[in-house]
Write a structure and sequence with these properties.
8 helices; disordered C terminus; 7 strands; Rossmann fold; about 35% helix; alpha/beta
Length: about 200
């Protein structure tokens, strides 16, 4: 596999979840991705969250998705136990911020999140986890406990040699604004949400 990332810089990052080591990687497009490390990541069965950028949720706490709550829960778990959080620049399931807002406008007219992406000419999920796999490999990780509800993320990581030895769900209670979004992720994208009665 062609190398797509370069390690650029490392520094300490104190947060409300604890003190992390922040490592920035740059891909061939010039985008920067970050790995946050806490504790001994060389231990067996390290806890990992691979999180795709969601400006509207992660920063502005949008109620249209569950991204910020998943990020918060993952950081708390890693803060307590140690592990790695990868933050990948794949806004809007890979379609970018502008197209994500265009998709929101279509959702305002009645479409679900999958229908809106497809109406704009995209696949329902355009994300690629090659960069995430290469960062994990650079960190020396081959077997991980992955925090996710997304079966495609598991497939995307395992396809390139990362062994998922346990899936840890990140179940968030739905609200009136994101219930349809979560239903579409469960029914059309196969996300593991029904096992906790989320929708």
């Amino acid at each position: 596999m062609e190398t797509m990332i370069r390690k650029k810089e490392t520094a300490n990052l104190p947060t409300e979840y604890g003190d992390f080591t922040a490592i920035v990687y740059e891909d061939k497009k010039g985008l920067n991705h970050i790995a946050l490390l806490k504790g001994d990541i060389n231990k067996k069965d390290v806890l990992v969250r691979v999180h795709s950028e969601c400006l509207t949720g992660d920063v502005f706490h949008s109620l249209r998705c569950d991204c910020q709550q998943q990020l918060d829960k993952a950081l708390k778990l890693i803060g307590n136990e140690g592990g790695v959080l990868l933050y990948l620049r794949q806004e809007g399931r890979g379609i970018g911020l502008l197209n994500k807002i265009k998709a929101y406008k279509l959702q305002d007219k009645g479409m679900d999140t999958v229908e809106a992406n497809e109406k704009l000419g995209f696949k329902a999920d355009m994300r690629d986890y090659t960069i995430g796999v290469q960062i994990l490999a650079d960190l020396g990780l081959k077997k991980i406990r992955l925090m996710t509800n997304n079966p495609r993320k598991i497939e995307g990581l395992e396809k390139y040699g990362i062994k998922i030895i346990e899936r840890i769900p990140l179940i968030i209670k739905p609200n009136t604004k994101n219930k349809k979004y979560l239903e579409a992720k469960r029914k059309k994208l196969g996300h593991y949400l029904e096992d906790k009665g989320i929708v």
